[in-house]
Amino acid sequence: MLPCHRDMAVLFIRGVPLNRIFAQYMGRTGGLTRGRDGNMHMGDLNLNIISIISALAATVPVATGCAMALRYKGKQGAAAFSYFGDGATSRGDWHEGVNFATVQKLPVLYVCNNNQYAYSTPLHLQMACEHVADKGPVVRHACRDCRRQRRAGRPRRHRPRARTHPRRQRSLHAECKTFRMTGHSAHDGAHYVPKELFEKWEKLDPITRLQARMLEEGWAAQAELDQTRAAIVAEVDEAVAWAENSPWPDPATLLDDVYETQ
Amino acid sequence: MPTTYLEAIREGLWEEMERDPDVFLLGEDIGVYGGAFKVTDGFLERFGEKRVVDTPISEGAIVGAAIGASLMGLRAVAEMQFADFITCGFDQIVNFAAKCRYRWNAPVPMVIRAPSGGGIHGGPFHSQNPEMWFVKTPGLKVVCPATAYDAKGLIKASIRDNDPVIFFEHKGLYRKIKEDLPTEEYTVPIGKAKIVREGRHLSIITYGAMVWTALEAAETLAAEGISVEVVDLRTLLPLDRDTVCESVRKTSKALLLHEDTRTAGMAGELAITITETVFEYLDGPIVRVTAPDTPVPFSTPLEEAFLPNVAKVLEKARWLHRY
Asked: Of the candidates B64, B73, B74, which has its C-beta nearest A62's C-beta?
């Protein structure tokens, strides 16, 4: 599992406890990196989570290597999950990693969270095609003459199918079209995003839509939803309190763990 | 039968692959073709496609995949066809591999082999010595063997090491030097320099192909009554400061020699190390012989002028001895 930058949900669902996530943000010893790194820059090999680095798409070729190791060790049905955003697909590492895995027919599932903005850069300044999926290795034709080349130039869309036999394994691309409803980070007011886009995508928010549906269909009562929300807020508060009580790292540990043996 | 530097690396790789089924190779043209320099000739036939992986021209993906596989418990040995192309995988090396253990306790036991060095008329993109880019990166180990014995012992130690190692093999030495190697198995420890010639009057501290230049100069100087000690660093990171300082404490004079360019080269770090530690033992200024601050030129007369050589070392050593 190679999460995207700032992908708290993947880490949380995969089993990183909430209190340790907050401690990570606060630079405390309770964070997964013991104060060596901040925010979502963390991993845990016991949970099969590989930490991102800040350079986007750097995990994509690493996912190739993980899938290579899975096949090497004969782990049937196992796959590497590589998450990234739309902006990351402009980087050379993304192309190199995807290409290498595809050439090797490695089991990698690429999940692109296409939220249409990379910081302030909209999708049309990021790429000249409509879908990130169009960048995938989906064109299959022989380039024998220019006329045929031109006719064949239109890429066919990938048709993913489950394949478990190693000889028939391949990488798959999933593009999730979504929208970033806030700025790139807390300091960014996202003034460059047209208001209409926020309005349009707010109506499409799957969480509020699910909530409305649940009430409408009678799957839950408002009181139950309120109760659930209050329980979640209490859980978060408890995790934050735990993190605030987690000790700061001791400066004497500054030099530790650069190497296995110093 | 004597073993060349190239054969020594090949033997080391071969033995480690025979010993540990988790060791595998990846790189451009290393399989069917046996590598641009033929270091991995015959490996595909013996170990198969699973363990000898021919890759696309993607240094970033080669290093990235080596990191991923190593995080998953394998031991990847990646080949850069020429050390010069390592720049294409730079981010993966210095930001990913080097920082995993410090940040989140994840070991990356991989080796990147990088044929470096000039003197082969390779021009600006096939002759560089890019070791200092990596010596500036905590978390990496940087190894530069000068002899066939050390090349074999150090490649084996690098593969067994649990931290990422950049292994610079000087391509000018590949077929130029040879020696009889022990028949029994051995490794050479990373991080240990070696006194390759003992002397009393001055120390030449160097590494890689320049060890041979230093030894040749030392021989000439011996005939003039100047006793030269030659220190082969063997590993640049972690640096064996003790052996360097011990030698200078004994001889009181230090000549620093490297094929890499001058500014911010290894000589700078050695000079401050000596000054900080054994300043009061010095009987003269610390001097250096290096390549100048230019790209590596292609044409023979230009490249010869660029590279440090015995004559340049002799001139500086005689001056320092007289000082």
From this structure: B64
